Amino acid sequence: MAHTFLIRRVRFSATHRYRRPDWSEERNRRAFGSAVDAHGHDFEVEVVVGGPVDPETGFLVDLAALDEVLRAHVVDPLDQQDLTTAVPEFRSGGKLPTTENLAFWIWEELESRIPGTAVLDRVRVFESGDLGSEYRG
């Protein structure tokens, strides 16, 4: 059976900062530079789902249903937020709100929520045009 992939992109704007609470100010500044201070990005998230194309509809996934999942579990919780406090794993200080950790968090939010028979293949998060991260579960 043929396996096809569909790519959907969503965008949101948010701030974040890199700071380990168990490190001194000097060590944080050495490790993270000016990123210890809150700063914003226009994030782009690319979600790739895969599976067989439905022979009757010609679609891999119900796009409206996928869009609703992305809106409810990515865009709405993160848009215009401080990722350092909006995401529980970042708020607790256990993980820093890097693009790498954000890609993993988004994967966890989406993996079991992809509609129909499609499966999540990868999540890519870009915080700028030349910096991003990809996670494949």
What this model shows, in words?
With 137 residues, the chain is of the alpha+beta class. The protein has one domain (4-135): 2-Layer Sandwich (Tetrahydropterin Synthase, Chain A), CATH 3.30.479.10. It has five helices and five strands. It has helices at 25-32, 63-78, 83-86, 88-91, 99-110, and strands at 4-16, 39-51, 81-82, 119-128, 131-135. Strands 3-1-2-4-5 form a five-stranded mixed sheet. Strand 4 (119-128) and strand 5 form a beta hairpin. The chain is elongated, with a radius of gyration of 17 Å. The chain starts with a strand and ends with a strand. The model has no long low-confidence stretch (mean pLDDT 95).
Protein topology:
Blueprint: E1 4-16, H1 25-32, E2 39-51, H2 63-78, E3 81-82, H3 83-86, H4 88-91, H5 99-110, E4 119-128, E5 131-135
Parallel strand pairs: 1-3
Antiparallel strand pairs: 1-2, 2-4, 4-5
Task: Label the overall shape.
Answer: elongated
| Residue windows where pLDDT falls under 50 for at least 5 positions | none
The main sheet orders its strands as 3-1-2-4-5
Distance between the termini: 22 Å
What is the number of beta strands?
Answer: 5
CATH-level-2 architecture: 2-Layer Sandwich
CATH homologous superfamily (4th level) name: 6-pyruvoyl tetrahydropterin synthase/QueD
Look at the structure and give the CATH class: Alpha Beta
What's the rounded overall pLDDT mean?
Answer: 95
The whole-angstrom Rg is 17 Å
Q: Which range does the strand content fall in?
A: 25-35%
User: In terms of structural class, how would the helical and strand content be classed?
Assistant: alpha+beta
CATH topology: Tetrahydropterin Synthase, Chain A
Domain count: the total is 1
Largest sheet: 5 strands, mixed
Q: Can you write the helix and strand succession as a string?
A: EHEHEHHHEE
Fraction of residues in H or I helices = 25-40%
